[in-house]
Amino acid sequence: MIRSLSIKNYALINALEINFSKNLTIITGETGAGKSIMLGALSLIMGQRADSKSLYKKDKKCVIEAVFEVSSYELNDFFDLNDLDYESQTLVRREITPSGKSRAFINDTPVLLSTLKAFSSQLIDLHQQFDTLDVHQAAFQLKVIDAVANNKKLLKAYSKAYKVYESDQKKWKALVGQSKEASKEIDFLQYQLNELNEAAVQPAEIQSLESEQKRLENAEEIKRILGGAALHINEDEQAICTQMLDWSNQITALIDYHPRLAELIEQFDSMMLELQEIGHEFMAIAEQTAHDTSRLAEINERLSTLYQLLNKYHVPNDLALLELRDEIETRLSGFEDLSGTIETLAASIDLQKQALIKKGLQLSQRRQKVRADFQKQVQLLLSKLSMQHARLEVEIIPTNEIGPKGIDQLRFLFAANKGTTPGPIKSLASGGEMSRLALCIKSMVADAIPLPTLIFDEIDTGVSGEVALQMGLILQSLSAKHQVISITHSPQIAAKANLHYYVSKKVEGNQTYTEVRQLSTDERILEIAKMLSGNPPSEIAKENARELLGTEV
Length: 553
Fold this sequence. Notes:
Rossmann fold; six-stranded mixed β-sheet; six-stranded antiparallel β-sheet; 18 helices; alpha/beta; elongated; single chain
């Protein structure tokens, strides 16, 4: 509910403030005085775009503020989601600078226009001729029929079950996707593990093979050099060890001639024995070394396989290959088999679907039950508003596809004239017809649906007398449960106001501005009399005005 609207420096308005009734507020006034300007200012509060051309004084900023009572709209989640301070009395402000820059605030927190629009759309329902009205929207039409059918409790249970069903469907799809991805990864890892196991890599195998490869590739050289060394050490006629033995015998004969010789000859003999052993080792290696072509080919092939694995898995050595194999085994053992979980969840989803279809059928039956009476009541109200031949048909087509609100496809079909085939409201209803239709429908469900503030802009265009009176009665009835604001030219509608404002245009010097003031009872009599007969009003018109105002009591 909107409590007040403050406008500064907008269009023809220098400054004004309006407080609204919680029931029916009526705005009347001179043609062109600025009644629609107030709606333009209100549209800025609702997030519409604007520029500096709308400024009354081009060198000052425009400020529009509205105070809303939001405690009954359950908007706490919206405030939390948008990081806003919740206040039951919420202040919305819009500023437009002379440069055209625009800013919006909710409780003094800056917000985007999209946020402001989402917020205000839950608080204000603005009906202007040729505007798009929610009465043609399928979601609202379904909401209306559910309100008439008193489906609130059943729909709440259905919606709760549907949310679980939808959530479980998402879980199932995610698990199926996860299982497919896991299966792909398992196949890939298993392939890698099989490849590494088939390779049968051994610790330090590459080093050992590379060493053997070098020996085989250089076998002839090893045999020639080591064999020659062994012969020169031990077996030639002038072998080193033979010569050393001769020298040892000669030096031994001199031991008694010098005290150091005994120790030195001992060392000399030890060296000779070691050299003899080295020579034997050289010979043994030379005899054992042979150029084995088949073994060399075997080693080369094995090393090629191992090198390919190192390159493929981007690891430095065979030890890293073994570590990779162990890691793959660990990862494979960690994969969970999701098939059982998927099957269980699928079975649960199927049961949920059957339960939802059952509840959906109940909703559908209840909607069908109230359909005819609803059509009849709407037609009765439309006939009171000079639309005697207008018809509204509610088309309900049950399906087996479940949705968030049941299993029905529902839409309103409208025909304004006799003999016309009913069709979609948006295609066949004029702005005035759509406004009256919306008024009739919303008055019927006002008790059941928490409607936002309803603002009607001259929906009485083209009607007068008894029709205007009936429209006023409908607005008055609607305002008993909801806040209604109506701009009107009709005295019959103006007479139903709980609060009546008059808009006029004033000229001071070279400046023209719009003035809005609340009318007293006597002023209302005079204004309604003018609307009935012109200015100045006749005494009969004044009496008629008093009579119209008496219908309030």
